[in-house]
Amino acid sequence: MNFQNVVKSFKCHKHKKPVQYLCFDLNCKDPLEMCNDCNKEHIDHIKSIMFVKDIELYLNTHSNANKLISDPIGLQTLHLFQSYRKKIETKLADLELELRQIILGLVDDQKYRELGEKFLKEAVDFQKADLILLKQTLLQMTAIQNNKLIKPQDQNEQKLQKLKAQLDQSLKQIEQQTMATLECLNIQYYYNTSLIKRLQKVWIDDNGSAKPAVHMFNTLRSYNVRIKDKPIYLAGIHQPILYKGQHEGTSYDSQKNPHTLIYSIYDKNDLKKPIFELIKIIEHQKMQIVEERLYEIFFDAPIKLFENKEYVFRITTNEQKPFQTYHYSIMANQNEFVEFQTEDENLNPEDYPSLIKQYYSQAQYDQLPGLIVKHL
Questions:
Q1: Which DSSP category does 2 fall into?
Q2: What b/e readout covers 91-110, taking b as 16+ CB neighbours within 10 angstroms?
Q3: pLDDT tens digits for 260-307?
Q4: How many whole angstroms separate alpha carbon 209 and alpha carbon 251?
Q5: In whole angstroms, what is the distance from residue 368 CA to residue 357 CA?
Q6: Alpha carbons 306 and 311: distance in angstroms, whole number
Q7: What digits encode the pLDDT tens for the residues 181-228?
Q8: Are 307 and 231 in contact (CB under 8 A)?
Q9: Sign of the torsion angle spanned by Cα atoms 272, 273, 278, 280
Q10: Cα dihedral sign for 110, 113, 118, 121?
Q11: Which of 139-148, 230-239, 315-324, 345-354 has the lowest mean pLDDT?
Q12: Rounded CA gap, 114 and 140, in Å?
């Protein structure tokens, strides 16, 4: 049964007849469901009465993604993109045709075409004496290497090689610029911003003091993140602030001088080259601080992370002398966007630089307590 038939199977409270209308007036004290005879009881707010069939039509129109065409603004929005795509496809087709003509002009060497026409197409009139002419002509136009005729590189071939190199370089630049532009366009659709928490609180040890996390050039921290079934744009992160305090009898003050942290993101299937890297100079007095002990760091441009893919987030520094940040701990509740690693991990030494001597990949404490993401 559809929605309309189900509702009509109900009986109104007063007349015990099939329900035909629903009352949407917020101040009405009478029952919501109405038959044809109930109208008089709602006469003072008759404009708030809805036909059940109209409600079903509304729900169908706005709940079925396949009925995009029923929404004129949605359809106009889609047509904007489709029109742009058609223009680009038409321009690319024109450029390809033009390029084909240019390449054909360089590949189709007239001298060899005439040679072929003379000795192949006219083979029916070919005489034994013509072999001498063939030999002389080929020796003028080719070279002999290892019992084979080798066509020497001529001006056209040099031009073709130059064209290939130029096109390769130009297309890569155009592709990078176009992809970056389109990604920026796409980001506009992801209008919601959320903070995804990984860790919740500063790590306090058994003696009641906050535990510092040490950073040096030979120290690497790594965290695994799996994106769930919807893509997100990573707009920034939360970073525990530089440490100032005492721990186990030692005083630390990493806040008085600026320090450098290097953030990188890798596709988990390729740990050799990052898809994103940020070298961030942390100057405590100039940083945006939230929740007392977290820096809020936004990237220059959000990074798209694709659904159902795993990524590795890494934090290191290029500083020779150690400095400290606060540790965070206590895993946050699950969220709808990403899954964080739930167990500590040991990484194969072949997957990180040889200078790294300390490696951390801890699930329940350390750095990266939160991600700032844009989403639909």
A1: -
A2: eeeeeeeeeeeeeeebeebe
A3: 999 999 998 888 889 999 999 999 999 999 988 999 999 988 888 999
A4: 12
A5: 20
A6: 9
A7: 777 676 767 778 899 999 999 988 878 889 899 999 989 999 999 999
A8: yes
A9: positive
A10: negative
A11: 139-148
A12: 14
One-letter amino acid for residue 3 of the chain: F
Kindly give the pairing relationship between strand 232-240 and strand 250-253.
unpaired
Q: Please check the confidence at residue 245 and state whether its pLDDT lies above 80.
A: yes
**CA gap 168, 182 in Å, rounded:** 21
What does each C-alpha distance from 29 to 33, 41, 45 come to in angstroms?
12, 10, 12
Give the torsion sign (CA, 360, 364, 368, 372): positive
Give the angle subtended at the CA of 45 by the CAs of 44 and 50, to the nearest 5°.
Answer: 140
- Show the 3-state SS of 342-364: CCCCCCCHHHCCCCCCEEECCCC
Taken as a whole, the chain contains a residue count of: 376
Q: Which helix (H) or strand (E) holds 13?
A: none
pLDDT at site 172: 84
Query: What share of the chain has pLDDT > 90, as a percent?
Result: 31
Give which of 335, 342, 341, 343 is closest to 373, Cα–Cα: 335
Sign of CA dihedral 237, 238, 239, 241: positive
Which has more pLDDT, 13 or 66? 13
Distance CA 218, CA 357 (A): 5
Share of the chain above pLDDT 70, in %: 83
> What does residue 95 show for φ and ψ, rounded to 5 degrees?
-65, -40
